[in-house]
Amino acid sequence: MKRRNPFPGVTTKPDRHGKLRHRLRRTIGGRKVDAYLPGGYGSTEFRAAYEVAIQGVQVTSPRSKAGTVAFLIEAELSSIAFQGLAARTKTSKRGRLDWIRLAVGEARYDALLPHHIERLMQKKGGPAAANRLRKDISQLFRFAAKRYGFRGQNPASLAETFKTKSDGFHTWTDDEVAIFRTKFLSGHKARLALEIFLCTGAARQDAAGLTRANIRGARLHHRRGKTGQEVDLPILPELARELSQLGPAQMMLLSQGE
């Protein structure tokens, strides 16, 4: 008895280098699906890509020359892992990867050495941005090892990090909070911002996106932009007092105007 194919539409053939490639070609509801699937046949990565493809999200292949940094970046941008990131995280990371692509996209990634990475780091605007670049490139090489079997050294891991002079962010004392409240009385936008941060612990990007729709009775509900985690908190009296003074037509809690 012929064994049933657990992944209908998938064929596996060697490419011109002898490496097996898995291709999905199938028509679903009148929609033609034609995509190459990453990972080993039946692996977690393979299964995830298969599900995404048959559900209507195209798994695209890189258009740049194989083996280049641009090729690697395009492959990561179309990966299941990248597509699963939060929208804001994707936008930020795509911007950083586009910078790398413009700078060294045509170079072969297996030819990059630690001093090449350090030169790129010197072009960034400060130690923190340089070290962020080093981390992004290191992640690209780990992706190359996982997706394409790259076995060379990771040059970013050997590049020197830039020293940053920072003692971190100062945490306000109770006295400093009291001084701020004295300067910005109830009803001021700065006072509302303070109470949102104190009463919710929300990240800056999350606080900036809060609207009336996040208020549900006596509770504030929102989803963290970075992790996607749902947060449900009671609205404390200090915050409730400021929210009660919002104009009836104001949807964003922290509007752009005064």
- Quaternary class: single chain
- The share of residues in extended strands comes to 5-15%
The H/E string reads EEEHHHHHHHHHHEEEH
Main sheet properties: 3 strands, antiparallel
Report the helical percentage: 40-55%
Across the major sheet, the strand order is: 1-2-3
The tally of helices reads 11
Report how far apart the termini are. Answer: 74 Å
Q: How would you state the average pLDDT, rounded? A: 85
| Approximate shape | flat
How many structural domains can be distinguished in the coordinates?
3
CATH fold call of the largest domain: DNA polymerase, domain 1
How would you portray this structure in words?
This protein is an alpha+beta fold. The chain has three domains: 9-59, no CATH class; 63-162, DNA polymerase, domain 1 (Orthogonal Bundle), CATH 1.10.150; 174-243, no CATH class. Helix content is 43%, strand content 13%. The chain is built from eleven helices and six strands. It has helices at 44-54, 69-77, 80-83, 87-104, 114-122, 127-148, 155-158, 174-183, 189-200, 204-208, 237-243; strands spanning 10-14, 20-28, 31-37, 215-216, 219-223, 230-234. The strands form two sheets. A three-stranded antiparallel β-sheet has the order 1-2-3, with helices on one face. A three-stranded antiparallel β-sheet has the order 4-5-6, with no helix packed on it. A hairpin with a 5-residue loop joins β1 (10-14) and β2 (20-28). The protein is flat and about 75 Å long. The termini are far apart. The model has no long low-confidence stretch (mean pLDDT 85).
